[in-house]
Design goal:
With about 300 residues, the chain is mostly beta strands. Helix content is about 0%, strand content about 55%. The protein is built from 1 helix and 25 strands.
């Protein structure tokens, strides 16, 4: 049937399409008595959780959306939901012996940590604290990082100036590279296939390919015994240095920028990215009802849109 009203031809069309793109980048960090976040766009700082003791490390479960926090002197690892706009309390996941560093394998829902003891170890359990398993024993293990692609656990100890790694099942252990300083923190960069670390005794930030070759010094901070946590956010390395959080480009020779300063020492650090794309408000004229109609449509981000921790 042919329509006789010519104005209808003009009205049957999409009048407006509004595309909304949202990206948030935040840093979570710990001090002596609380865990806070800073919005990297607005630089607004918000307290997330009050705690009665220091936490030296944070880890994130991308699936269940929990932040895990080690409490060295309380011999526990706790967690709390994040993101969350309401006041939250931490719940104890596992009781253990002097947990120092934590990391999380979201693909398998496994929590990993180091026990800072003379008879220390690298340990794993399920996200609910069950099935505690020793991966490798060592004297005073400190830092810990997971290569979930190639199934290596990178770690360091107080007694060996070396970057070490062990398979996830603990059957093979390797010295990746010997160094002249203890490693206070380690991170794996899956994009560049490099491992980054902060040297505690020299203040140098360095990296190496995951096969142990091509060692590079990203930056010499000349700050000894005060640099601690590092994390990777896109092209930048974020790190803590006494009361400051700084960032530096992954390319060697760049100068760092201060992101945030506290009144007390900053210990743990976690980079968090929320990224989503929504196409909203398709608007059209309905021939059936004779009314202007609209509908919001949400589109999931493509795989190549994601970096870091992606949340809808």
């Amino acid at each position: 049937m042919r329509l006789t009203q010519p104005w209808l031809y003009m009205q049957v069309s999409v009048v407006a399409v509004c595309c909304v793109y949202c990206k948030q980048e935040k840093l979570l960090f710990t001090t002596a008595n609380n865990i806070q976040e800073i919005d990297l766009d607005t630089l607004v700082v918000k307290e997330l959780v009050y705690q009665s003791t220091e936490s030296y490390s944070l880890a994130y479960d991308e699936k269940e959306r929990y932040v895990y926090s080690s409490r060295l002197t309380e011999n526990t690892i706790v967690r709390f939901p994040y993101p969350n706009d309401q006041a939250v309390n931490s719940e104890t996941v596992v009781s253990t012996n002097r947990p120092y560093y934590v990391a999380f394998d979201s693909g398998n829902s496994h929590l990993y940590w180091t026990e800072l003891n003379t008879l220390g170890r690298v340990v794993r359990c399920k996200s609910d604290g069950s099935d505690v398993t020793t991966i490798v024993n060592g004297t005073l293990p400190i830092a810990l990082a997971l290569d979930t692609h190639d199934r290596w656990i990178y770690y360091s100890t107080e007694t060996s100036n070396a970057l070490l790694r062990v398979t996830f099942d603990g059957t093979e252990r390797q010295v990746v590279i010997n160094l002249s300083s203890r490693l206070i923190d380690i991170q794996v960069d899956f994009v560049d296939q490099r491992v980054y670390w902060m040297e505690y005794d020299t203040g140098d930030l360095k990296s190496v390919l995951n096969n142990g070759s091509d060692v590079k010094t990203v930056m010499s901070t000349y700050v000894k015994l005060y640099n601690r946590e590092i994390d990777i956010g896109g092209d930048y390395i974020f790190y803590t240095s006494y009361k400051n959080i700084l960032k530096v480009h992954k390319s060697s020779g760049k100068m760092p920028t201060v992101v945030h300063t506290e009144q007390v020492q900053i210990d743990g650090l976690l980079f968090y990215k929320l990224k989503s794309r929504n196409i909203s408000n398709f608007t059209w004229f309905s021939l059936h009802s004779g009314k202007l109609c609209s509908k919001n449509v949400s589109v999931q981000p493509r795989a190549d849109d994601s970096a870091g921790i992606t949340r809808e």
